[in-house]
Amino acid sequence: MMATQGSGRRSMLGAIVGGAVLVAAIVAIVVSSLLAQQPPSQTATPDETEPAGGTASVTATPEGAVVDPDAAQQGWTPEPITTDPEVYIRAALETASTFDTQASSREEWLAYLDTWFTPDTRYNDPVDQDAALRASRTEMRQGVVLPAEEWESLAREDGRVVATTGGAVTFVPVSQDPSGDMLIGTADVTLTFTRSDGSGGETSYEEQVRVSVQVLCGPGSVPTPDTAQLAGDCKVVRYFTEPMEP
Q1: Intervals of the chain under pLDDT 50
Q2: HEC states along the chain?
Q3: At 136, which CATH number?
Q4: Fewest 10 Å CB contacts: which of 74, 93, 174, 213?
């Protein structure tokens, strides 16, 4: 009778153990199946990684971008890449009087100013556009920028000039411009002259002028070649020898 009971207990224990093993095997199979169905973790490839600073349009112009980043090292005002007329007009008025006689020659500076210009789109004929462009550059050289004699005098004293615009920019529409993309901007400009004082130091003084420039900020503008500037970014059409008031 005792032997029978022990045998029964062993049989029951074996059944329990066997059942537990079976359940464990089933659980393992289910877990393995679930794991196999889960998608693998996503790892970004180099092509999928966003650029630093977040997603940006490839055609967007960064704020503060300029045509020639090395211009300031030459003592010149960098040309901004912008479609904002006021931002561009202020820079254009400043660049016509900002230079360092020890960092570049007058001809190098004038050649740099030439790159700011674009043809006048009021002329349909390319020949007329080219003639007007050459006339505008000549006018700048002869009636707007510092004359050669004064440059040479300043150069003998290691001189430089920095121009800054102050106050509001006043705008005048351009006549016979059906596009509406051209504007004349006028502003007060402070010229700070710095010269050697002859004894190892420097002396500075200021002059106030009021000047005007005509700019084109529209699809007809021609960007400076081999730069980040695009058609539609602002460019200079003409500097005036006298301020153009409303």
Answers
A1: 1-59
A2: CHHHHHHHHHHHHHHHHHHHHHHHHHHHHHHHHHHHHCCCCCCCCCCCCCCCCCCCCCCCCCCCCECCCCHHHHCCCCCECCCCHHHHHHHHHHHCCCEECCCCCHHHHHHHHHCCECCCCCCCCHHHHHHHHHHHHHHHHHHCCCCHHHHHHHHCCCCEEEEEEEEEEEEEECCCCCCCCEEEEEEEEEEEEEEECCCCCEEEEEEEEEEEEEEECCCCCCCCCCCCCCECECEEEEECCCCCCC
A3: 3.10.450
A4: 74
